[in-house]
Amino acid sequence: MAAQTEESDTAREQTKAEQDVDQVRQRATRDQQRLDSGAVTSPKDLENLQREIASLAKRQGDLEDVVLEVMERRESAQERVAELTDRVASVQAKIDDATARRDAAFEEIDGEVASVSKKREVIAGSVPADLLKLYDKLREQQGGIGAAKLYARSCQGCRQELAITELAEIRKAAPDTVIRCENCRRILVRTAESGL
């Protein structure tokens, strides 16, 4: 924005400087035509007119130098605008790409959530209401994990190895008995890899 403002400011400045040069040039041309026409006959008026023409020539040269300096600054500002515009376009392309990838990932995640939610509903329908209530309560308390696998005599929820006495009680318990970890209080899921 600053570079574009600088470029437009220097464009206005250049236009003004060029107009000033044109005015001086036109005036010098008119004065030269008056001088050449012979309409001025007084030696004093002729001398004044020649001095004015010389003064206008110097003024025109000074103004043309100003125009050149402004043109250089404008060219530099235009290059800066072009460079920054390219950089903005590059960053915008990266943003667009990242946004598209994010949206695709969200879509994929939403699809997985819907699929898993359907499976959960089917499984939850076969679980006794009191056990499901306990599981949901533990899930809320334990950061989303209400049950953990008992693997190699360790609770995979808290990663603590169970004491020998706890393992003995778990071995004696019936397969449909709800067992909970003494450390984290999650429901323990027994498998062939539990190490019992």
Notable features of this structure?
196 residues; alpha+beta; single chain; 72% helix; 4-stranded mixed beta sheet; 7% strand
Structural topology:
Layout: H1 2-37, H2 43-125, H3 129-141, E1 147-151, E2 154-155, H4 164-172, E3 179-180, E4 187-190
Parallel strand pairs: 1-4
Antiparallel strand pairs: 1-2, 3-4
Helix pairs in contact: 1-2
Tell me about this structure:
- The protein is of the alpha+beta class and 196 residues long.
- It has two domains: 107 residues; 62 residues, no CATH class.
- The chain is 72% helix and 7% strand.
- The chain contains four helices and four strands.
- Strands 2-1-4-3 form a four-stranded mixed sheet.
- The longest helix has 83 residues.
- It is rod-shaped, with a radius of gyration of 44 Å.
- The two termini are 70 Å apart.
- The model has no long low-confidence stretch (mean pLDDT 88).
Give a nutshell description of this structure:
With about 200 residues, the chain is of the alpha+beta class. Helices cover about 70% and strands about 5% of the residues. The chain folds into two domains: about 1-110; about 130-190, no CATH class.
